[in-house]
Amino acid sequence: MKKTAAPLKMLDVKFTVADPALFEDLVRVGDMFHLQDFGWFVRFFDKIIAESAQQRPYYYSIISGYLLEMLVRIVRERLGQPAAAPEEEAPRVATFKGVDVAALMQYIDFNYSRIISLEDLSTLAGVNKTTLISIFKEVYGTTPIRYINRIRLRKAKELLVNTDTSVSEIADLVGFQSIHYFSRFFKAKENCTPMEYRMRNGQSRYFNFQRQGGSSLW
């Protein structure tokens, strides 16, 4: 029996780019291009679709951050710039000492906004907590919880610069359980408060999905 091909699905994303420099670079990139790591963009679109479908609190801010990061990555790749700073790019490791590290990274990437315990990760990895910590230190140079907080901090910085979401909402969005802890953690890492960081870096912070003229970039 002849198999029927799965129907083609298309995702149309319309948006406005508030940063004039980024907009000009996107125009320079053009309408069609080849991506070196297409799987990365597929995973990001999966997260955008999931947030849109679930519509949990502040999902729009999360989607805005995801889309903006995708656009910046496209510009960096196409214009010959590195996709991410070395200290922020996690090594791409599938398995290590029999542990499915890729599955752990995917779990963290999709759930950093929620409470993630060491017990959760060790259960997922199928090893005890001591072994899990050892693996993380060998692969990523830090403990699992510190690694998660590093991701939360990076996401918080993106939201501070690229959205008008309040600091307390951002703290909740990225998984910090207390605005006070978030503020202390942020200042310890960045030597400034979240609001100070926003004022220094947020020249144009609002971002949405409706581009002028109603056409999609792609």
What does this structure look like?
- The chain has 218 residues and is an all-alpha fold.
- The chain folds into 2 domains: 20-80, no CATH class; 112-203, Arc Repressor Mutant, subunit A (Orthogonal Bundle), CATH 1.10.10.60.
- Helices cover 57% and strands 2% of the residues.
- The chain has helices spanning 20-29, 38-54, 59-78, 101-111, 118-125, 129-140, 144-162, 167-173, 179-190, 194-201, and strands at residues 95-96, 99-100.
- Strands 1-2 form a two-stranded antiparallel ribbon.
- β1 (95-96) and β2 (99-100) form a beta hairpin.
- It starts with 19 loop residues before the first helix and ends in a 17-residue tail after the last helix.
- The relative contact order is 0.14.
Number of helices: 10
Shape annotation: globular
Number of strands: 2
User: What is the residue-averaged pLDDT?
Assistant: 76
Q: Provide the CATH top-level class of the largest domain.
A: Mainly Alpha
What value does the Rg take, in angstroms?
Answer: 19 Å
User: From the 3D coordinates, which CATH architecture of the largest domain would you assign?
Assistant: Orthogonal Bundle
- Which regions are unreliable across 5 or more consecutive residues at pLDDT < 50? 82-89, 203-218
CATH homologous superfamily grouping of the largest domain:
Homeodomain-like
| Biggest sheet layout | 2 strands, antiparallel
The span between the termini is 37 Å
What is the spatial order of strands in the main beta sheet? 1-2
Tell me what portion of residues adopts beta-strand conformation: under 5%
Can you tell me the CATH topology of the largest domain? Arc Repressor Mutant, subunit A
Q: In terms of structural class, how would the helical and strand content be classed? A: mainly alpha
User: What is the helix/strand order?
Assistant: HHHEEHHHHHHH
GO molecular function, one term: sequence-specific DNA binding
Organism: Ruthenibacterium lactatiformans
Pfam family, one: HTH_18
Protein name: HTH araC/xylS-type domain-containing protein
